[in-house]
Amino acid sequence: MWGMIATWRMALEGVSKGAAMLEQGGDAGDAAEAAVREVEDFPYYKSVGYGGLPNEDMEVELDAAYMDGDTLDVGAVAAIRDYANPVSIARRLSREPVNSVLTGEGAERFAHKEGFERKNMLTDRAKAFYWKRKKEEETELKPYKGHDTVGVVCLDQRGKMTAATSTSGLFMKKKGRVGDSPMVGSGFYADSKVGGATATGLGEDLMKGCVSYEIVRLMKEGLHPQEACERAVGLLDRELKERRGKAGDLSVIAMNNKGEWGAATNIQGFSFVVSAEGEASKVYLAMAGEDGRCTCEEASNQWIEDYVRTRMAPVEGQG
Ligand code: SD4
């Protein structure tokens, strides 16, 4: 028995790669890392790794994390610049007994010492988005449409579970801003005795509910991953609206150690990818309903192709 679930359609190719590894008895850590690296390396996904959208100073600062559900080891980097694969650095850090979460210059120094690949992560395409956005003078910081964090949860045949995330965070964020993705319990959590979860959306709001830990906690109480996801998102969405008048985008996925999975969202159109034993990787679309309830449907081939086509369309002003 093995399984893998990941946020957004952009993870499809990575999940397929990771799933092939799991199918052959590969390790959940290797599969999670390989899946996320695939997304980091693809230049047209403008929210993860190479090609990620910059902060307001036009610098690409990346957040990533890794958690081993057997040992509960956590490693993370935040606001790291000029390294090709932040998820691999996070995984390497997870093996450090202390100093396992590093930010900015400290993270870069560690990556350099460990021989990780340096790369200028700012593409011409990302620059074009930057200038376009400058002209629009949009001031509200929010998850950019088509701009999302990749998060994966893996279960391997030995029963080990892992979670990993990677993102450029919010477009036009302040220098040094850190979202939920490298924050254990908020952006991700994995416990092989129970299951794993990961989140995407407005980090500032996801953190208020420590939503990934909450989902794993609910699964530990015996809830099915689908119920755990819906309950956690429904509650956080309600609390935020009640106390603050509004809630940012909140989308989550989870898998338990039996390979059962779930997803929930408070937006219309959160896509995610699932791969399990005996099945090819599938893309699903989740739609928010009442009280955290969600409907998940398989996405059509047309939808899957359009997603990539729109991501690869020319940016106005590029050239
Ligand atoms: C962040 N949660 O940095 C990330 C961004 C994201 O969809 O997931 N966008 O707040």
Provide a short characterization of the protein structure.
The chain is α+β, with helices and mostly antiparallel strands and about 325 residues long.
Structure characterization notes:
The protein has about 325 residues and is α+β, with helices and mostly antiparallel strands. It has a single domain (about 5-310), classed as (Glycosyl)asparaginase (Glutamine Phosphoribosylpyrophosphate, subunit 1, domain 1). Helix content is about 35%, strand content about 25%. The protein contains nine helices and 13 strands. It has helices at about 10-25, 30-40, 85-95, 105-115, 125-135, 205, 210-220, 225-245, 300-310; strands at about 5, 60-70, 75-80, 100-105, 150-155, 160-165, 190, 195-200, 250-255, 260-265, 270-275, 280-290, 295-300. Helix 2 runs antiparallel to helix 3 (about 85-95). The radius of gyration is 18 Å and the shape is globular. It starts with a strand and ends in a 7-residue tail after the last helix. The mean pLDDT is about 95. It binds N-hydroxy-L-asparagine. The site of N-hydroxy-L-asparagine has 14 residues, from strand 8.
| Tally of strands | 13
CATH class: Alpha Beta
Tell me the CATH topology: Glutamine Phosphoribosylpyrophosphate, subunit 1, domain 1
Hetero ligands:
N-hydroxy-L-asparagine
Strand content: 15-25%
- How do the helices and strands follow one another from N- to C-terminus? EHHEEHEHHEEEEHHHEEEEEH
- At the fourth CATH level, what is the homologous superfamily? (Glycosyl)asparaginase
| First-residue to last-residue Cα separation | 49 Å
Largest sheet: 9 strands, mixed
Helix fraction? 25-40%
